[in-house]
Design a protein that fits this description.
Low-confidence stretches: 1-27, 119-123
Number of strands: 24
Mean pLDDT: 83
Oligomer: single chain
Number of helices: 12
Distance between the termini: 7 Å
């Protein structure tokens, strides 16, 4: 029963065995040829009937993408062939607000993922994206009467161009990094949300992103604007079927939390192990505003994701809580960034990671307190759980303090499930596998308890499947 001396059994992943790993027959209407050039970017914009200024922005971003190098740090990206991808895949059918009108294979996919049931029970609005386009959207009438806008980003561009000219690409500019430039060139789908002054949404809004085709890239663009004194909770789910062919997910999320607003952005990703998940997420918090990122990363061959909060206004607050699970042939390189600029700002970063079967997890973070951010306070906590001698966990924190009148703390722990813990719990009648599962769930509990109940139950189930046979 000495865990360190036992060979951890290789198991199928949660996606291969669970409800998310199935594949639907491809019935797309159109897909661009493989590869990326000016002609393909122009074709995407033309099919979407976009204004010329958006096409100009796309083409400028394409040049930036070609001139930018891959990051010289982090996971290796040499196995993703960017010339072997379809950058736009148009699914069959048109966008619907009536579930019964969706093409049968698309409706069946989302029904198996539990979307209609979740919508009926506890969601204020739902959006579902299949391949490169949003195919379904439903919003409660009461929200629309309050002036809440929840649209696909493509439709919102046509209906509310003033918002886009003011905010699109301002929080995450195309020259931020290579994959932000790529998204800016070929973006399609995603969510646009505007919550008017003083409107506080009692129920979450949800978007679900599904990649079904092989050799494709999904590049949704999400823009959330919470006006003064408003609040919104947005939940994002991501899945893809099991495939031996590598695909790419490179999203961009921009959030503006105005004076006194509160925004929570929750991600529960369970990508298949052939997906490169390279995402840029950033929020600006103005005076007395609050932004909370809750990020749960399971699946994907490689994840590079570092949600960021820029605390621009006085008394603004930011929290980033993340959970990453790295198993065989996976590298979860996740973390957080917080930039303090306003006075009396507060931030908390909590990172939890679990590695097993030779998987690797990394925390990569930046906490910066700019000069003039008087009385800023920040706390960073990184905890890693390593389940066998083949796995690895790394921490790469960067803390930059330029204001003397401020305080910050950083703590990190690395632990294993050891023989004494298992023996104690097994002496109370639990099996070795049950004991290990309880320890793992306890480790992840600070993240799980922040999720809505339905999502907390789902994450517990995913962890249970992912950790099967990891102990004993």
């Amino acid at each position: 029963m000495v865990v360190a001396k036992k060979t951890i059994r290789r198991i199928e992943t949660a996606l291969e065995r669970g409800k998310f790993g199935f594949k639907t027959e491809e019935k797309d209407t159109y897909k661009t040829p493989k590869g990326l050039n000016k002609k393909i970017v122009t074709e995407i914009s033309k099919r979407k009937n976009e204004p010329k200024w958006m096409l100009d922005l796309r083409l400028k971003a394409l040049k930036i993408f070609h001139n930018k190098n891959y990051p010289k740090w982090g996971p290796k990206l040499d196995q993703i062939n960017l010339e072997n991808l379809h950058y736009y895949v148009l699914p069959r059918g048109k966008k619907e607000s009536d579930w019964n009108k969706l093409p049968e294979e698309i409706a069946e996919t989302f029904e198996r993922l539990g979307i209609p049931e979740a919508e009926k029970k506890f969601l204020a609005a739902t959006s579902a994206q299949y391949e490169s386009e949003v195919v379904y959207k439903s919003v409660q009438e009461a929200l629309e009467k309050q002036g809440v806008i929840f649209e696909s980003t493509d439709n919102a561009l046509k209906k509310y161009p003033h918002f886009f000219k003011e905010y699109f690409g301002k929080i995450v500019p195309a020259n931020d990094n290579k994959f932000a430039a790529l998204n800016s060139a070929v973006w399609s789908g995603g969510s646009f949300i505007y919550v008017p002054k003083g409107v506080k949404l009692p129920l979450p809004l949800q978007a679900y992103f599904r990649m079904n085709a092989d050799n494709m890239g999904q590049f949704e663009r999400t823009l959330i604007i919470a006006d003064e004194g408003s609040s919104v909770h947005y939940i994002e789910g991501c899945t893809a079927p099991v495939s031996a062919i590598n695909s790419l997910h490179a999203a961009v999320v921009e959030i503006i939390a105005k004076k006194g607003a509160r925004v929570q952005y929750t991600t529960l990703q369970d990508w298949s192990h052939n997906i490169y998940n390279l995402v840029t997420k950033r929020a600006h918090a103005h005076e007395n505003a609050e932004v909370l990122w809750l990020d749960c990363n399971i699946g994907a061959k490689v994840t590079m994701k570092y949600p960021a909060v820029y605390l621009l206004g006085d008394n603004s607050r930011g929290e980033i809580h993340s959970l990453a699970v790295g198993t065989r042939n996976q590298h979860q390189d996740t973390g957080a960034k917080v930039i303090h600029s306003g006075k009396n700002t507060r931030s908390i970063i909590v990172s939890k990671s679990i590695s097993k079967d030779g998987g690797r997890t990394s925390y990569r973070g930046l906490m910066k307190i700019n000069k003039g951010a008087k009385n800023a306070q920040s706390k960073v906590s990184c905890d890693a759980l390593i389940l066998d001698k083949f796995s690895r966990s790394d921490t790469y924190p960067t803390n930059i303090i330029s204001e003397r009148d401020s305080s910050s703390s950083h703590e990190a722990t690395v632990s294993k499930i050891n023989e004494d813990q298992l023996f104690y719990m097994m002496s109370r009648g639990l099996t070795e596998e049950e004991s290990g599962s309880m320890i793992i769930n306890g480790f992840a509990d600070p993240i799980i308890k922040k999720l809505p109940m339905e999502y907390a139950l789902e994450l517990n189930r995913l962890l249970e499947i992912e950790m099967t046979d990891s102990v004993g």
